[in-house]
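LAB NOTEBOOK - FOLDING QUEUE
OPERATOR: T.R.
BATCH SIZE: 2
PURPOSE: Compare the predicted structure-token outputs for two unrelated chains run back to back under identical settings.
PRIORITY: normal
REVIEWER: second-year student, initials M.K.

ITEM 1
FIELD SEQUENCE / FIELD STRUCTURE:
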Amino acid sequence: MPGNEGAARRAAEGPASRVAMALLRLSQAVKRIGIADARPAGLTPVQAQTLFFVRRTKSFLTTIGNLAAHLGTSHPTAVEVVNGLVARGLVVKRPDPRDRRVTLLALTPAGEEACARLDHWLDSLEEHLSGLDAEALDALERGLGAVIRSLQRAGLLVVGAPCRGCVHFREDAAAGAAEPHYCALIRRHVSEAEAAKDCPDHTPAA
């Protein structure tokens, strides 16, 4: 029977194939949830992601190139998204004070307000996850973390994270200074506020 054949095929595919299909279905649900949650703010999911990127990323790393990598899209598409948000008064472009050839993105007050309205974005997904017990959530977090790291190593995913825990981070390299911490990768000191924001080049320390 067709039903039995389908069950037999899935069993023969092995757990990796079944989990891959489950992740595909999950991504479809997350997309629908993202659309529904962003709609009250008058935004699309990619626009919401862009606002969060600008808000959470170090101010000197909010380039369109980094945004494109974060969104997993092309540079022209990222430019189009940014231009739409600029036209709506939610984002501004400004030159990097250290290199005026580089354009950085920043939120306007209206952009900050839009982010505040999105603070509960994807909360409904958390509600579905809350049905799992602590042991199941821990196992899921570890498993998904391993998949994410594998995708990062393959260059298929960019995940930003704060400075602490990064192999390049030197905490209190200049203790007492306005920018006490140091990043060995980009060779610049950073303030505590910037250290707490995401960096797309974060490399977890072993």
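ITEM 2
FIELD SEQUENCE / FIELD STRUCTURE:
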Amino acid sequence: MNPDTVYLVDENEEQRRTYTRTLNELFRDDGLVIKALAPFPTPADYAKLVADGNIAALILDQKMEDGGVAYSGTQLSAHLRGIAPKLPIFILSNYTDYRDLFEDGEGDVESIVAKKDLTDPTTHAAQVFKARFLRRLSGFADLLDERAKRYHDLLVKSLREKLTPEEEKEIGLLEDERIVPQQAAEIGDIKALEAAIAELRKRMRPDELSQQ
């Protein structure tokens, strides 16, 4: 079963209600459920959320600092890339014309979306966002399926015969991809979490890192 839950994180309660309602209407025929969340106290607190097997994407407000937390949407996305490097992440903002607000983290998200484009799900801008959003989610679901199948195939092969060194490395990496989010959800010490992420990155090939 493909992931079907999209989480919208915004510090403004009224805007959470508004955009959750709009997005649920926009995606009502696509099998997606949009759920609203207030920002967690720290980026590390999102580990359990991204470990949820039903998560399809995150939509983050950029200026979450206005709600009292010490990070922005792009800062949070940069942190989450270490835990869930392929998870689709989108930024929602009233300030898309001010590119300097995003220059340090724009590369960590799929796109930056203007809130004004999503006030009415029937507009052309909203429909364009929907088409791009669904294409990205389809690719994410296909990737999960491909990696799950590859992990299963290698696991079955390992029960029958000895894996090659390359296959041993590959299955180890696939295992790490499966358990690091769960480990992150259980680790309370941020330094220990960062060490776990660093170890995973060290084991990844350069071409895999370049695709993140």
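REVIEWER COMMENT (ITEM 2): Residues 1 and 54 are 9 Å apart (CA to CA).
FOLLOW-UP: none requested
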